[in-house]
Specification:
Blueprint (H helix, E strand, L loop, with lengths): L9 E5 L9 E8 L10 E3 L7 E3 L6 E3 L7 E3 L13 E3 L5 E7 L4 H6 L9 H8 L6 H15 L5 E6 L4 E7 L3 E6 L5 E4 L16 E3 L3 H7 L10 H5 L4 H18 L26 H9 L29 E9 L9 E7 L8 E4 L7 H4 L10 H14 L1 H33 L4 H34 L12
Antiparallel strand pairs: 1-2, 1-12, 2-14, 3-6, 4-5, 7-8, 8-9, 9-10, 10-11, 11-13, 14-15, 15-16
Amino acid sequence: MFSSKHSSCTTILVGKKASYDGSTIIARNEDAGDAVNPKKFVVVEPEDQPRNYQSKLTKFSVKLPDNPLRYTSVPDAVPDKGVWGEAGINAHNVAMSATETITTNSRVIGADPFEKDGLGEEDLLTITLPYINSAREGVQRVGKLLEKYGTYESNGILFSDVNEIWYMETAGGHHWVAQRIPDDAYVIAPNQTGIQEIDFDDPDSFMFSKDLRKFAQEHHLNPTSHFNFRKVFGSDTQLDRHYNTPRAWYGQRYFDPESVKDKTPMSNDLPFICHANRKITIEDIKFVLSSHYQDTPYDPFAPGADYKTVPYRPIGINRNQELSILQLRPGIPSAYSAIQWLTFASNPFNTLTPFFTNVVNTPDCYRDTTETLDSHNAYWANRLISLIAADHYQALMQDIEDYQLKEMGYAHERIAQVDQQMAEKEASGSHVVRALGQANARTADHVMKATEDLLTKLVVKASQDLPGSFTREHY
């Protein structure tokens, strides 16, 4: 069995009636096992999609259909250990993010062992996203693959279209369940099995492997009189209480403090389906996925704090590699309604860039990430910023927050500008694709210039206060 090197992500799902503009929104941090794991942002054209897929981590292989769709992807810059496509939107405006590594228990893997040569996070986006026309179809395709080939790990998989969001969780090697997220709800998933009560008679809200209930009965997996997927297939360990549940607690606290007033970071009964006390914005999602328990005793960046002794794992950490917020907007022509908000490296110190996804290429500063450091590349520039800022947090965060505020304002302005340009041109087909590609390039150039300027400012400021500093004023 392989354990994923991208093993500690955090997911947020926001239904269309819970979001600020009626969009369906799915988002996930990709966190690697190491602090540095260079990522890039690409478009995969149908002619570049493999027809016979072979995993690099296992012996898993599968023949893929002959009619793939174009799609965006955020793969590893160095493909030696696989694709790890992670997040994207296809040409039919279906979004997918895979995967949120989750937990299980020994009784489950004893009854349905993991498949050492099954599929996993390395593979899932590549073998699924180009072949689906809706979020529901995404669940169905992955379900069939899981039942046939099995998996070597436990994962949560995110799907959305402009109408629905589905969250899918695996159980053991071959079993699974998926729940449609209610339109007025949001979800925070922190590396822990989350789905709770399953209604086997509600196909509009739940899908599952065909023998799931029988499997649980035959192997005496269900300790309750009802069917709570988290209780049956999940875990409740010391690691969960320090590594997983605190992230859900902080996110739920942010969206509605009253909902967790009687809870603690270690509460093991936090709800899966939640409701915020307001509409949720892109900025809200970015804040939570960058958070490190601000305004609590657990903030590792608080003055005098020792990050080595903080009891709970933050969401925004040095091992963040990329964050994709996949937004499918209603009431806008489908040719330019889908946006992939993207950023690289440690989330407390970066900003999002909005990319329209109906394009055939991505800007080179996001696409051409190298294995070695290049400060003119988005991944590496943000990695350098996070390295400097983490050691000089109090001195530099005002500059970073000013940059984040300004560039998020620019991002919203750019979306409105491009929407208006597309509407005025009434462009269609290849004309839209070309215009959106040009718009993305302009947006990326602006954000990259601002990021390089910030990097320069931080280097200059941080260099003034280093061991060995010496000025004439010392005499």
